[in-house]
Amino acid sequence: MSTVPTIEKRVPPLVRRGLVPQTRPQRILALATFVNMIGSGVFMVTAALFFTRVVGLPLAQVGLGMGVAAGAGLLAGVPVGHLADRRGPREVYLGMLVIQGAAMGALLVVRNFWLVLVALCVGELARSAGGAARGPLVRGIGGDDLPRYRAYLRSVANLAGSCAAIATGFAVQFDSRPAYLALVLANALSFVAAASVVAALPALPPVSAPPRTNRWAVLRDRGYVAVTVLDGVMSIHHQVLLFALPLWIVGHTDAPRWLVGATALANTALVVLLQVRASRGVDSSDAAGRAVRRAGVAFLAGMAVVAATATLPTWLAVAGIGLGVCVHTVGELWHTAGSMELRFSLAPAHAQGQYMGLFGFGAGLANVVAPTVLALCCITWGAPGWLLLGGVFLVVGLVTPEVVRRAERNRPA
Length: 413
Fold this sequence. Notes:
This protein has 17 helices and no strands. It is mainly α.
């Protein structure tokens, strides 16, 4: 008699259904991700309100400080990623979480702009560096089905973001100093809690580099640099629904304002439910390139539908924006699946950290320039700007498979 049914019964139902990762280290990192992203999501949504209403800074100084900090954070990925390659990713990631917690805790007591700027820069440097160290950690414990586990972690992060949005909604409703201070304290404690969870992970020994390997090999890998540039341009799409669409709904359409929250909720729900499924089969560089190409087509289609809503009556504008958001989210799912695979598969095992750091630099730079690009294209130029940016995404998607193939052929020995 077959023993397969007996073995299957030993697998917990949540694991069998894919709701919980298979191994204990995978579950630990997923829990740390959830805790970390709840705290970060809470702060990101209410940061401007905290600095203006509690700290008492002018809005111009808030924007300057956050912009400078974001730019400073871009510098840490590659060197700290290299440190993670040589010293072990768990230890470096753990240290970055602690530094983030300390920087966030400092914001509870500082009231001077320059001290706030220092705390923000330290926090952003640690955040960027932590992302570079986390990459090798994910690869090390991801197991044989790494693409599925990466997709699972992204779903967890989006679910945490939804929970954070609910918490911030209550705080904004109270609109009081204690409420905003409580959110910042919660974020600081979330880093400490995430570090405590990460400490339970087994240590991963660093992979030895081949003899005569250049210390900063990623900067000489032209193929990987080219893929990073293309991915950075495509990553501007992450701000389309967060930044451009709300301004478009309120200022350029007859759609009701409640649609802003509804579209954000729909996007998050689709990512949580479908990211793992969208990542199936995206387990090689070629498959990842094709996924990014499909994403470019979806972005153009979704943005064209949104652009058309400016001249539509209310109910058609609501339907058009809803359809555009769904199509755009499909592109987001495909791009994320392809991007996550490329950043891992094109990087050598001994230099995962510094390669992750460079890839993160591209995505981070996209977040810095995205508001300006979207404001110019989608809000100032209107419908033609939406089509122009969608066309840029399409071109990037079409050329990515060939650039990926060249990067594969010319990878350093």
